[in-house]
């Protein structure tokens, strides 16, 4: 008899604690949903009432003094309910952590390489003490900072050149002992001159964070039409790095019409670079920062770009892998330079296959023209997968894949308001694509003046058509 009373006193507190835990977890779940603010008001009310009803019902079963079966039933389902809520909290915390990292990134990263001729015995920066160093004098804040960092370590004389070809020439003939040059510009030199690419070695690297202008033109994206610029840079690793922008897409989005027009612009389009006001390839605008790319495209199409998203090679592979692959349409049967095979029609691809698909151009007679069509098809494939029911299973891995692999000037409230509207409306979007074209040509560019480079002269009829399509989508 005594043992039975003892067991009863030990069991009752457990049930009380279980109810307390269930109530606390329910409250945390609701508070996080309220804080994240992605549920429409009526949805949040329904969710609140549902959690109150379930918590109250299970609590009454657990604390009942009549019927062991009811108590067992309530206990089992309470434990299941708590596990489900905890999983929900994990989803909410991941979402909150991701959204809190959104917002205007107010800097770009310039990566400078200090190079010397291969036959020289210099191995480290200290070996250049008391010598001279050539620089490309673009008069940027990043260059001033890197010069200061070098001067703090060694005593070196800087010799400035206004033209990169002159800097390269003096370096090769040995009139300057070393050169400090931004990585993107160094790649341009190497690609245009194979002998030069084989002539040097890198003895040091310096990364400099440089402030950039906020080009955001904020609107209520749940009501007002807006333009999103997607920039894909030709590098792996840190997305804040300046580099050539090989993917240049505009998404004109009308939330009232639920209409999206994707405009693809060739990387070699011969355009005027933003406030630099010099002619160059569009891809080279990325060397000077995402803000320069934005202003360049705004000038080309006479538009205002509201927001941008900047990604790189690492971004695409991680996003596609996190989604478990995507189904992308190809107009052609081809084998990429990486050895992946694609058929005409739908192709289910994983990360590296997706990257190879959007990068390939030499397999086609149309070259870059076909590539930008493939890039637009990849964007559509990503959107289709992201709004499919599969996203629930892939949700956490998708957020983890996006972390540190993209830069945007969209703020947390932009994203949450848009998600809230999508949940409320629960309707499909009409997505169309259009690619600009032009004529092949060779011209001198601002970034490489030594010789003429391949460029694409814009077809003004295409430019006018793009303006018209954007205007049609944007109008309410």
Structure in a nutshell:
The chain is an alpha+beta fold and 476 residues long. The protein has helices spanning 2-36, 41-62, 68-100, 141-153, 164-172, 183-192, 194-197, 282-285, 290-301, 313-322, 351-359, 368-386, 391-402, 412-425, 460-474, and strands at residues 107-117, 132-136, 157-161, 178-182, 200-211, 226-233, 245-254, 259-264, 270-272, 279-281, 307-311, 326-330, 334-335, 341-342, 345-349, 407-408, 430-435, 438-443, 453-458. It has 15 helices and 19 strands.
Task: Describe the protein in words.
By secondary structure, this protein is of the alpha+beta class. It has 3 domains: about 90 residues; about 100 residues, D-Maltodextrin-Binding Protein, domain 2, CATH 3.40.190.10; about 250 residues, LCP protein (Aminopeptidase, 3-Layer(aba) Sandwich), CATH 3.40.630. It contains 15 helices and 19 strands. Helix 1 packs parallel to helix 3 and helix 2 runs antiparallel to helix 3.
Give the overall pLDDT as a whole number: 87
Report the span from N to C terminus: 80 Å
Strand order of the largest sheet: 16-11-6-7-8-17
Name the poorly predicted regions: 1-11
Whole-angstrom Rg: 29 Å
Overall geometry comes to: globular
CATH topology of the largest domain: Aminopeptidase
The share of residues in extended strands comes to 15-25%
CATH-defined architecture of the largest domain: 3-Layer(aba) Sandwich
């Amino acid at each position: 008899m005594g043992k039975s009373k003892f067991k009863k006193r030990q069991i009752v507190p457990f049930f009380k604690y279980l109810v307390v835990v269930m109530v606390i977890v329910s409250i945390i779940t609701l508070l996080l949903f309220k804080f994240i603010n992605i549920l429409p008001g009526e949805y949040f009310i329904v969710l609140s009432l549902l959690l109150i009803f379930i918590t109250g019902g299970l609590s009454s079963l657990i604390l009942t003094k009549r019927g062991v079966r009811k108590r067992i039933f309530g206990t089992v389902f309470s434990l299941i309910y708590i596990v489900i809520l905890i999983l929900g909290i994990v989803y909410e915390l991941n979402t909150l952590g991701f959204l809190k990292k959104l917002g205007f990134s107010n800097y770009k990263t310039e990566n400078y390489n200090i190079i010397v001729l291969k036959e020289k015995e210099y191995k480290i920066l200290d070996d250049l003490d008391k010598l001279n160093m050539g620089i490309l004098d673009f008069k940027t804040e990043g260059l001033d900072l890197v010069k200061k960092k070098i001067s703090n370590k060694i005593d070196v004389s800087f010799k400035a050149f206004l033209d990169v070809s002159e800097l390269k020439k003096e370096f090769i003939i040995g009139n300057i002992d070393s050169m400090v040059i931004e990585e993107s510009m160094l790649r341009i030199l190497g690609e245009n001159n194979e002998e030069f690419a084989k002539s040097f070695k890198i003895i040091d690297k310096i990364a400099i964070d440089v402030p950039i202008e906020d080009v955001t033109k904020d609107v209520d994206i749940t009501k007002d039409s807006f333009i999103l610029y997607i920039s894909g840079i030709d590098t792996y690793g840190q997305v804040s790095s300046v580099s050539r922008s090989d993917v240049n897409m505009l998404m004109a989005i009308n939330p009232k019409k639920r209409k999206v027009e994707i405009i693809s612009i060739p990387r070699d389009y011969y355009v005027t670079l933003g406030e630099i006001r010099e002619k160059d390839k569009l891809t080279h605008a990325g060397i000077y920062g995402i803000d320069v790319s934005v202003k360049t495209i705004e000038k080309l199409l006479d538009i205002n770009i509201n927001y941008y998203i900047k990604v790189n090679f690492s971004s695409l592979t991680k996003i596609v892998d996190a989604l478990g692959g995507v189904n992308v349409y190809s107009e052609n049967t081809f084998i990429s330079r990486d050895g992946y095979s694609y058929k005409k029609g739908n192709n289910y691809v994983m990360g590296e296959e997706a990257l190879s698909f959007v990068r390939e151009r030499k397999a086609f007679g149309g070259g870059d023209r076909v590539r930008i069509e493939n890039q637009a098809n990849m964007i559509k494939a990503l959107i289709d997968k992201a709004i499919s029911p599969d996203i629930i299973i892939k949700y956490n891995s998708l957020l983890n894949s996006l972390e540190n692999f993209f830069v945007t000037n969209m703020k947390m409230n932009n994203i949450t308001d848009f998600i809230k509207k999508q949940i409320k409306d629960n309707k499909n979007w009409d997505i169309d694509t259009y690619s600009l074209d032009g004529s092949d040509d060779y011209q001198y560019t601002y970034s490489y003046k030594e010789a003429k480079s391949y460029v694409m002269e814009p077809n003004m009829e295409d430019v006018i058509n793009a303006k018209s399509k954007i205007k049609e989508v944007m109008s309410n």
